[in-house]
Amino acid sequence: MRPKNILLINPWIHDFAAYDYWIKPLGLLYLADFLCHHGYQVNLLDCLNSYTKSNPDGTHRLRSEKISKPNILASIPRHYKRYGLPVQEFTSQLHSLPKPDLIGLTCLMTYWYPGALKAVKLCRQIYPDIPLVLGGIYPTLCPEHAKSTFADLTVCPGSDLLTFLKVIDQLCQIKRDYTQIKPDLFNYRPAYDLLEDQSTLAILTSVGCPGKCSYCASHYLQPIFYQRHWTDVYAEIVSYINKSQTQNIAFYDDALLINQQTHFKPLLKQIIRDKQKVQFHLPNGMHIAALDQELAELMFQANVRSLRLSFESSDLARQKQSSSKVNNQDLAKAAKLLKAAGFTNEDIEVYVLCGLPGQSLEEIKQSIDYVHSQG
Can you point out the beta strands (E) in 228-334? Predict the structure, then answer.
């Protein structure tokens, strides 16, 4: 009996703007490795693997085409676009890949679901009888919306690998004993062999976050915070450098600096000792209150070249309401430490929250002005 063939699809982004800042479909790639370990053949169709410009830091300008705006966005005076593969190339790749027994799609941002809808429509035209499964952050945070919008699909919220396997097995008519299966995410590695270009990759050293900031969904998506041992993370980094000639690695952690004395700092020290020639990037927002002089210097020496600082707002009431994890003095201190270590303004960006319920335009302006006042 031939192995069942699974096609995993990372759909388009439909939005007013989108850039490839180290975007990788990490969840799909972990799922791909898990499925391969349990007898499936897996192919990947990544709609976001389509660029018009590549930069030395591993970021890209995505290809795009103008499309009609949804009615609710009609008043916004900007072009609405589909970012990623041209539709004709998507259809061509779909025809060229082995016929799947099941198609699995992900959807990251909740408001990106129109891109997944477009992919589903095209899949249905070519494979009308093939079962489709939708997973990812969107159906996890908005399960009822996903079930009504994708009524003819199997919607699979959450991130439990064993749940995905049981759903896929049922749709593919596979029976097995699940008692010996190890569903822990870090028993597996992202199936980067499915990507043509592995010069830029992403890595997770942990899942979840012990914080419960009012605006953040991390603790809903991953209720339990878990960190890998830093030596396991380092072995993964080395494998990418040696086997894939990877030049840029982005850390996808939500809470990279938690337990930094036994986690991130030893990892950086090993990278420095071994003189690894690769650039590292931290796109997910650092907890700047945890930054100290040693960490700033280690990051610079380890060739960390893109820092995103999680600041949120300069408004004291907003800081207290959202998390109390950061204040204005923390940002000032972080900026000073990072520049003293050697980082430039081009290396550092700061996240400020905009559009929160009840938030005034003046608060946003004041927050931006405060960030700029730090250099």
Answer: 248-251, 279-287, 304-312
